[in-house]
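Quick one, T. Sequence first:
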Amino acid sequence: MNVYYLPSRSTESLDVAAAATHWPAFQAGGHHFWARVRLTAVDVWSAVRRGGGRNPIDDHVWFPDDVPPAPRRRTAGPARVLDFDAARRRRRLAAAASV
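Structure tokens:
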């Protein structure tokens, strides 16, 4: 197993950290803001281009007009009984037939 010992902090490194500017955080916030503005502009432009009336997702295959009926559910009742002896016999007969 490898053990790594990190050097302890010195007072010089604390002074450097305290003197750091907030420019990177401001820059990241600016990039985030610009990305949001661009996405909003793209959405608005696409709505203006298509006339704003029709939704492009309406005729997509994921949302068909005729929804297929749900599969029939099994009626509530007693649980099915498993017959292990009959299953073993069927398995033996299938194994003998495949040889």
